[in-house]
Please model this.
Amino acid sequence: MKRYLAIATAALPLLGCRFKNEEHGEQQQRIISLSKQYSEILFALGANQDLVAVDLSSTYPPEIKSLPTVGYHRALSPEGIVAVKPTLVLHDNNVGPEHVMRQLEQLKIPMKVFEAKGVDIPSTKALVSEMGGYFRREAQAASLNQKLDADMANALRKANAYSTKPKVLIIHFGRASNIYLTITQASTAGKMIEWRAGRYPSRANEACSNCPRK
Model:
C-alpha cells in the first residue's frame, strides 16, 4: 500500500470503531491487523484508534511501530494473538499456518477479510472504499482515492518527460525464509519502476552487464 498511497493522515480525525454490548453499553474494539495493506489504510482513514496489534510486515506509517506485534503473518502462533484479547482480527487470507487459523476459528475470535485485493491501482481504490464503508469513513475513503488519482496522474506526467529510462533490478530479502528473491517485471515493484520512468531488465543478467565477474 505504501507504494500506492502517499497520503498525509495527520489531518484526518482519529475516530474509533465501536461495538454495542447490552450489559456494558458501548465498548471499544480491540483490532489486530495481519495485513500491511489493511494496517496502512486504517491509519490513512483515521480508523486506527482501536488497532491494538499488527503483524511484523506492518511497518508503515512510522507511528505503527509503537504497537505490539503478534508475529509474521505466515508464521503466526495462537498464543501471541490471544494474549492481546482481540475482538476482531483483520487478515487478507495470506496468513498461516493453517492449523493456527483453525484454532482461532475454534476460539470464535471474529475475523474479517475484505473482498478487494489491493494489488493494483483499481483494486487498491476498491479496497479503500470497502474499508471506508466498513469503518464508516466513506468521506475519508473518497478523499484518499481522489488524492491517489491526482498523485498517479502527476507521477505519470513526470515519467513521460524523461527521454531515457534507466535499468533497475529489485532484489527482495524474504526474512521469513531467509532467502533472496528477484522481483519480476510483472510484479507491483516492476510497475513502480515503470511509473518512475525506469525500465525493468528483461533478464537478470542484463541488469548486471557491468557487474564484476568471477
User: Anything to note?
Assistant: The first helix runs from residue 36 to 45. The two ends are 39 Å apart (CA to CA). Residues 3-25, 204-214 have pLDDT under 50 and may be disordered.
